[in-house]
Design goal:
By secondary structure, the chain is mainly alpha-helical. It folds into 2 domains: 14-186, Serine Threonine Protein Phosphatase 5, Tetratricopeptide repeat; 187-260, Ankyrin repeat-containing domain (Serine Threonine Protein Phosphatase 5, Tetratricopeptide repeat). It is built from 15 helices and no strands. It has helices spanning 20-28, 31-38, 55-60, 86-93, 96-105, 121-128, 131-144, 147-155, 164-170, 174-181, 194-201, 204-217, 220-228, 237-243, 247-254.
């Protein structure tokens, strides 16, 4: 079964709408419950006594109420109203065990950008700052997809032109930035590098991490080009940090690239 692509106006077939029980189990990180539902055990409870949530689920603690209205056995290809798959949900909540199990059953979910925003599961994990989930997704992709598809996934842009690395940088998730900088340091369609994104948002820790990793992994000329690089509107990372009043980010950048 094919999932409707991002931005498509076609309605989701009724049989591919995600079961509410399945959504709740995935959101909370109940791996056993997810696969019980996928196996057709529709009478199982969402929180069985012998099912332990992932650490992320224990910390999250959100209470959500849904009615259980499904057609029986669930499918791993079901999507939410926003066209998010089970892997999008697990990645966004940082449920590493569930991510691994889902990928072992269907590795094609790794590169799915079916969500209405064009986000892949990697985008979801990066945006939420789940560095361990980012690391797990990259590891699973390396083991399960061809090199060209892996590169496309790592550098893939969502509907707004952001890569997973840009989202991690913009939201100040330093550890996730470091994970992604090691495998895919790239530029978005607007000319904004991850450094631009972190600087504009004022995330000094992410700025520091990006610069440190660049120093360790790229040649001096490329490092200078990155630090002084301009986006589509002619702004460097330092200009963006200064314009938006992010003094700590400005200080970080002034130490390495004091330019006009």
């Amino acid at each position: 079964m094919e999932i409707t692509p991002a931005g498509c106006d076609h309605e989701i077939p009724e049989h591919l709408f995600m079961c509410s029980r399945l959504y709740i189990a995935a959101f909370r990180g109940y791996t056993d419950e997810v696969f019980s539902l996928l196996a057709g055990s529709s009478g199982a409870a969402v929180e069985p006594a012998n099912s332990r949530p992932s650490p992320a689920a224990q910390e999250h603690g959100k209470q959500m109420n849904f009615s259980a209205n499904h057609h029986g056995g669930c499918s791993i290809r079901e999507v939410t109203a926003e066209r998010s798959t089970l892997l999008h949900i697990a990645a966004g909540e940082g449920h590493g065990e569930l991510i691994a199990e889902l990928c072992s059953h269907d590795s094609s979910l790794l590169s799915s950008s079916s969500s209405s925003s064009g986000n892949t599961p990697l985008h979801c994990a990066a945006r939420a700052g789940h560095a361990s989930a980012v690391r797990g997704i990259v590891r699973l992709a390396r083991a399960n997809v061809e090199e060209d598809r892996l590169k496309a996934m790592l550098r893939g842009m969502n509907a707004t032109g952001d890569t997973a690395l840009h989202l991690a940088a913009r939201h100040g998730h330093g550890e996730a930035v470091e994970e992604l900088m090691e495998v895919a340091p790239e530029t978005a369609s607007s000319g904004n590098t991850p450094l631009h994104c972190a600087a504009r948002a004022g995330h000094a820790g992410a700025v520091r991490g990006i610069v440190r990793l660049a120093r360790a992994n790229v040649e001096e000329d490329r490092l200078r080009a990155m630090l002084r690089g301009m986006n589509a509107t002619g702004d460097t990372a330092l200009h963006l940090a200064a314009r938006h009043g992010h003094s700590e980010a400005v200080e970080e950048l002034m130490e390495v690239a004091p330019e006009t």
